[in-house]
Design a protein that fits this description.
Largest sheet: 6 strands, mixed
Structural class: alpha/beta
Radius of gyration: 26 Å
Number of strands: 16
Shape: globular
Helix content: 40-55%
Length: 541
Amino acid sequence: MRLTKILSILIAVCLLFFTLSGGSKKEYVEYSNAHVLNNLDDYPIIKDEYADEIELKIMGSSSGTIDVDWKNNKFFKRMEDLTGVKFNFDNIFLEDMYKQKKGLVFTSEDSMPDIFFKAFFNNYDEITYGSNKQIRPLNQLIKDYAPNIQKLLDENPIIRRCITTTDGNIYALPTMYLNTPNDSVMRAFWWINLQWLKDVGETDGSGDPIIPTTIADLERVLTKFKEQKCFSNFSSPLVICGPSELFNLFPIFGLDISQYYVQADENGELVFGPLTENFEVAINTFKRFYENGLINQDWNTFTETKKYQYGKDDAYGLYQSASPVYVSGANNLQKFVTIDPLTSSVNSEPFWSATYPLERGCFAITSKCQYPEVAIRWIDTLYDTSKPYWVWAINGKENAEWHWNDPEKTSWQSDVDDAEYAEVMGTTIVQPGDGMPYAVDETFFDKETTNNASYVRPQRNRQMEYGKVSFPMVYFSKEELKELGGLSSDIDTYVKQYIAKTINGEAFDSYEVFSNKLRNEYGLDKYMSILQKAYDNFYGL
């Protein structure tokens, strides 16, 4: 027994030395400092006697804000007043620089923050840093100290599936979009120029514009736009910014190729879109559009910046955006209306590509954090849509930056002057872009009284009703990621080359050669088997 005990001690010492020398994964310590917390329903969340002892290091991307230093931001100051939690900030303005530094801080525990906020973690980050025990699994912390998050996950099992990795753990919290018109979300919509429709005679007997409902209708309308309205180098009947926007038109032909180029058939079997008859019809249609000048000739390289630069002159007949104000300007807002999903000779079911109502990888707690209970309780505050705290992140504080117009809270408006809005909100909110860990009650923004919101939101909600999720937000294991990475990159590059060169009439592989290469040279069978397994696991098939 004594010898066994001595051997056990020696083995433990060796393992400790091996760990400290970097020879194996470091086991994080499960701190238990819940005693510093007040009751779950109480604010501040930290007891007074511990308020000066606790300061958490927070790291994230502050891109999109004018004052890039979060220590000056009213959101964090208001959250500190509410919760009692203080932060030491390490935030990086440029997203690319942040993502680079994010990877570097994991090389040394000394450089790691306590939490990542607006973290932009992807599948690789979560599964790698999670399995290395550098970020904590949140399952038990949520259950014990985050009642708002727990409630939302119980009520929205799809969201739970979307943030649970292949090892069964939740490592990062998402943005949750609640009370949407559908069980999915869309970020941008197709807007058609009403004034141009009237000008070219696309009207009914009373003079109201007729909105296209089929791809044939659209081609006729775009042809009229080209012949009668587009006279400058910068005007275009249909504007497309790169392959991603072009992909959003494939639902017209019954295809959703926005995620890995696949969608499930009625039996739950994944179909690779580019190897279908519908794909050929779509490509031939877009090629004809290109040849006839119905789309911008530089569509494959056209940028959002250029679209905004030239669009202010009312130069476009149809384009994709969250709102016309961003492209055509506020003065032209009501010249545009959303276009419902079109049908075609190969598709009679109108739908738009959509995703489940969340954005993954927004918040994580590291192994370095000695107060994980405090961290999860702090972020849980932003997942309670019955309280106004989540609004602080995106809209500011009630009766400071905005107010309700009536006691029944049926509408609200901003108190910040339009001319000063960008500067004021740049140091007030932290969510002008993506990556925010909170729950958003979409009905709040339906009550906004600005001209843009009042005009856009009803149309946005109508289009959201057509949203369809063809492939869910799945996770892959480290092994699957490694195998899928090379396959996916090669297939994506080849498919995009084929689409661009074929539409533009450049010399490239024929469709028959394209199909054969995908099947025989690009590992498509293995690629599809990995995706099918992930799809089946997600839906429990």
